[in-house]
Structure formats: structure tokens, C-alpha cells
UniProtKB/TrEMBL annotation:
The lineage of its organism: Eukaryota, Metazoa, Porifera, Demospongiae, Heteroscleromorpha. Coiled coil: none annotated. It holds the Pfam family Ni_insertion. The keyword Signal does not apply. It comes from the Eukaryota. PANTHER family: NICKEL INSERTION PROTEIN-RELATED, PYRIDINIUM-3,5-BISTHIOCARBOXYLIC ACID MONONUCLEOTIDE NICKEL INSERTION PROTEIN. InterPro entries: Ni_insertion (IPR002822). It comes from Geodia barretti (Barrett's horny sponge). The keyword NADP does not apply. Keywords: Nickel. This is Nickel insertion protein.
Amino acid sequence: MLLGALLDAGLPLDTVKEAVNALGIPGVEIAMATEMRCEVRGTRALVDVSAAPRYSPRQMLDAVAGAAALSAHTRERATAALNALFAAEARVHGDDPDQIHLHELGTADTLVDVVGVVHGLEQLGVERVYAAPLVLGEPGGPRRPGGYSNPAPATLEIIAASGAPVAPERAFHAGVGELTTPTGAALITTLAEEFRQPALALNRIGVGVGGKDPAAFPNVLRLWLGEPTPPVARWQDNVVLLETNLDNATGEQLGFAMERLFEAGALDVWHTSIQMKKNRPGVLLSALGPAALESRLAEVFLRDTPTLGVRVRPVGRYVADRDIVTVETEYGPMRLKRKWLRGEVVSAAAEYEDIAAAARERGVGWSAVSNAVNRTGLLGSD
């Protein structure tokens, strides 16, 4: 499916054949066909290796290393994908990676898939790869005596070793079985820099179709090609928002809870006046924090306020780059926090503690110190 998506995006079939020829694999036939999956058109890569020899892990790695016609970059990335595959198989079977006996993965098809995809990405000029969470399909027991359950053990080992995210099971996956193979998992986890959707100006879409054709959903893989469009600020999506409604909390409790939430690692905490049931005035207590600290923050809500429950939802946010510099003013050195957008300073603000300390020490008002800071002309400076 990955190879089909590359072909659908414009990769010439002859380019794939040249990569396979560079490996010195005899008896391989490669073709492409346009097929439909639930009214979605795509390209299917047809690889016939029935006349090709089988390969051991060492033979596959040697074939890649000896393919002088391929770039060093392609050989390096293909080797990484194969090593991830062999390490997973070795762990599953309890063998040394050089000694494992490959069953389905021992065919030349594995080499064609790995090298074809890596070489194809390079030929299309792809410099960075991102991926969505992996879709594994329907979990289930072996479908034949001596077979393995889905997800395949090697697929899970590859995903666990890379820390790649997995998409949740869906009801429409029922009966479909495997949707991510060990080879596919090895390619995606070694090629993808991050598992997220980057900001892109899309210019091409490649659709690869698989051999399965379930009625419930189109069995396709979509490849998005485009140029990066840097966002105005850094995108942060590993954040959660925790909230609870309170109609029986005192001001002291709210203040204490805010302190405890910040101590627990919250990025921001606030409360908002709301109207609750029975016409009672209440407070909405909210906290923003890293997803990794969700449980710790929820415990503060439950322990330090009267609430019986906490709502949690993932949120994303844009975060401007910032730095702190020290400038000299007529009232002494002042720390200023500068906000950066697209490489330039767009605002700056003095630290509260510094202005307050100078105002007290010199016996002047807040505005006098603040105006002195403004006269430094920091905004837009280096």
C-alpha cells in the first residue's frame, strides 16, 4: 500500500524496477493497477516474487549494502527498517537476529517493499516524513492452526520498540483482520519523524490500495505531499484541560487549590463565575497542564476542592517562543520577557518583581519605572 501510494503520487514504475535491479534480485515482476475501494480510486502495486529466491536476514542486509546504484541515504534507511523488522522477529521467536528463520518475511517481497518505498520517497524529493497513528485492525485469535493472532506479534514489537501511537479499534474493523503488517510497521516507524499532522501546503495526494476490499470502509493508504508552512507559533498538542463546577467552595479553598495545581505542574489555572442549578452562583475551576500530569492534576481537584468529579479533554494550543533579557535602566537592571513570532520580537514586558522592587526602593510610582523600561527601546532589538 505504501508503494502503491508512491506510484499513485507520480513515482515512475521504472524507478521502482531500477531499485529492485540494483539489489540483484532475480525473478521479480512488478506492475501497477488502478482499483476501487468503496468508491475511492487508488493504485495497487502488484509484486510477483513466485520465481524469486528466498532470503535470510543477512542476505537481505547484504543485498542492500551492495546495491551501489542506490544512494547511501536510501541504503541507510532501508537497512534501519530491515533491522527493526529482524529485531522484532528475533524477540518474538527468542532467537538471534542473524539466526531467525523468516516465513512470509523471507520472500523477496520484503526487500521490494522496503527498498522500493525508501527509494521512492527519495526520488519524489520527500525530505521529512510524518505519520498518523497506526491502524492495526481487528484484534483476534489465530485464524489457522499454528498461526498468530492479530495484531501480529512482530508488528506489536516494532511499535513498542519505537513508541509509535496506535489508533483505537473501530466497530467497522470487525472481520477485517490485519491492517498493519510487520513490514509496514517497520517502514513507518523508522521513516516517520513524528506522529502528527504538520502544517502543509498540499500539492499532491497518492492513494495506495490493499488487497483486502471490506465493505465497511475503503482499505486505502493516503500519502500527502506538500511544502511545509511554518505556523505563526509553535503548536503544542500534548496538553489537557481539566475543569469542575463548584457551588460550595470558599475563597480560601479556591486560592489553596490554585496554589496546589501550580505546584503539581499546571501550566495555567483560573476560575470563572457561573450560574449553577437551583439558581446558585458557582465557580468553574479550570487548569491547563501537560497530558503526562493528568492524573496528578485531577487528584488535586478531587483532594483540595469539594468536587466529586473532574472533566478532562485534550486541547491544542499555539505557543509563541519567548526569552528573557536584562536591560539597564535609570532604576537599575530589569529583566524583560520578549515574545517572538516568525523570527522577530513583537512585544516585551518587564518582570513584575523587578518593577515592584525598583518602585519600592526608589520611592516612585509603578508608571515611572515602567516608562523607564519602555524608553530602553527593547522592542524589535536584538
